[in-house]
Amino acid sequence: MTGLALAPIHVIGVIAGLALLYQSYRLVSDRKEGVFEFLLWAGFGVALLVISVGSAITSVDLLGGLEGAMALLGFARGPESVLFVSNLLLLFLVFYSYIQLVESRKQLSDLNQELALLRYDLDQRTDDDD
């Protein structure tokens, strides 16, 4: 028999997971997001849905299965492994954000140079007309 221990945090997790999936799909369909960003945020949404639904259904020992999978990777205890993996994911997101920032600064610098050249060219043309 399936036991259901539905708490408000489970509902919040399901809503947040569905929102991540929907927003990620909407942004990629409007071409405002790349495939990598879609996979990243959709993966977080699916993980949030699985954890929320899996922990609400008491007949499925999702957290025990997660601890077993982490033990296969060499982690001793569940909370330590979750902390380690979440820190790795946060580090990955910070690094990805930094790379995006560097690329945006380079693009902005290139656009400023192009704008300065266009202004100079426009000034030269208006001076030649006088």
Account of the protein in words:
This protein has four helices and no strands. The chain has helices spanning 8-29, 35-56, 62-72, 78-129. It is elongated and about 85 Å long. The model has no long low-confidence stretch (mean pLDDT 80). Keywords: Membrane, Transmembrane, Transmembrane helix. InterPro entries: DUF2304. This is DUF2304 domain-containing protein.
Per DSSP, the total helix count is 4
DSSP strand count: 0
Low-confidence stretches: none
How much is the radius of gyration in Å?
24 Å
Measured as a percent range, the helix fraction is over 70%
Largest sheet: none
| SS-based class | mainly alpha
Q: What is the approximate shape?
A: elongated
Q: Hey, roughly how much beta strand do the residues contain? A: under 5%
Order of helices and strands: HHHH
Tally of distinct domains: 2
| Mean residue pLDDT | 80
Q: How far apart are the termini?
A: 90 Å
Which descriptors would you attach to this protein?
mainly alpha; 4 helices; 130 residues; elongated
Question: What does the secondary structure layout of this molecule look like, with pairings?
Answer:
Layout: H1 8-29, H2 35-56, H3 62-72, H4 78-129
Helix pairs in contact: 1-2, 3-4
Short summary:
This protein has helices at 8-29, 35-56, 62-72, 78-129. It has 130 residues and is mainly alpha-helical. The chain has two domains: 1-60; 77-130.
